[in-house]
Amino acid sequence: MIKNQRIEFIDVLKGFAIFLVVWGHSIQNCSPTIRFFDNPVFAGIYSFHMPIFFLVSGFFFSSSLKLGAKDFLVKKFVQLILPCIVWQIFYYAMFYVEAYTTHDQTFLDAGLAHLWGIINPYCFQMWFLRDLFVSYVLAYFALKLLKKYHIAAVLSILIVCIAPFLTEFQRFLFPFFWVGILLSNKQQIFFKHVKTITIVVGMLWAVSLLFWNGHYTIYETDFQKLFDIRHLNFDFTNIGIITFRFFIGLFGSMFWFGIFAIIYRKNSLYNVLGKVGKRTLAIYLLSNYMFRFCIESIIDFSSFNQWIYTLILTPLFAIILTAVCMLIIAAVQKNSKLDLFFFGNKRKKITPTL
Which pTM does this prediction carry? Predict the structure, then answer.
C-alpha cells in the first residue's frame, strides 16, 4: 500500500500540475497577438498537462470499486457533473450579458437552445470533468463485469476509440486513466525502480519534445473515431500524430510522477504545493471562468518580448492567479452548500458518539 509520504508527494505533484495548467492558460490568454501553439513552453506544458491528471485520477481509482454502483454513480456525479452544470449556468448567464451589451441578437434569440446547452454534456465548458466522469464510469463497469484488469482496459479503450457518442478528448485521455490504474496495481515495482524508470522516461520525453509542436495537441489535431460503425470502415487519419501524442503524454506524465516521488521532502515550498494540489478541481473551475470573462479583456502583455512574456510575466501572473483562487476557495468552503454546488465537495456528516 502507498505510504502517507507518497500520498503527500502526489498532492505536491498535483499542485505543480495545476500551476502548469494556469501558466499555459496565461500564455494563451494574456496577449491577444501571441501564436500560443507555436510557443515552445506552451507546447511543452500541453504535451502532458491533461494526461497527468487522468493518470493520477486512475492511480486512486481502486477506492471506487469498494462502492456499490448506486453510491459510486451518485458520488462521482456530485463530485464532477454537478459543478459542470452549476458553472455552465454561470457561463450562459455571462454569455447573455455579453450578448446584451454587444447587441448580439442572434445569441439572444436562441432562447431554449441555450437552456438545453446548460444540461447537454457536449456543451459543457468544463469538458475535463465530463470526460473524467465518463472515464470513471467506463472503468468501473468494465472491471465489475470483466474482473481482469488488462482485459477490461483493452476492451474499454477499444470501445472509446469507436463509440460515436464520445468526444475526441475522451479518446485521447481515457488510456491515461488506465495507465494510472495499472500503475497503482504495480506500484511496489514502480517505487522499487523509480529512479531508473524516471531517468528512462525522462530521456524519452526530452527526445520526443524535439519533434513535438503545439499543433499536434488535441486542440489542433483531432482524434477521430478509428472505426465508423455506420459505414463499416476504418479511419486512420492522423494516426501517426495520435500515437506520438499518446507516448509523449505518457513519458511526460511518468517522468514528473517519478521526479516528485524522488525529490519530495517536507518543507515550506512542498507544503504550499500540497495545499494547492488538494484544490486542483476548484482552481481549474475558477481560473477558467476568470480567464474567459475577466482576464482576456483586462490583461495585455503583448508589448513585451516573447521570452520575458513566457518566462517571467506569465508564470508570475499564474502564481498570483492561483493564490487568488485559493483565497476565493477558502471563502466559499466556509459554506458547505456552496462548496458542494461549486466545487463538488460533499462533506461527511459527523455522527456524535455517546
Answer: 0.91
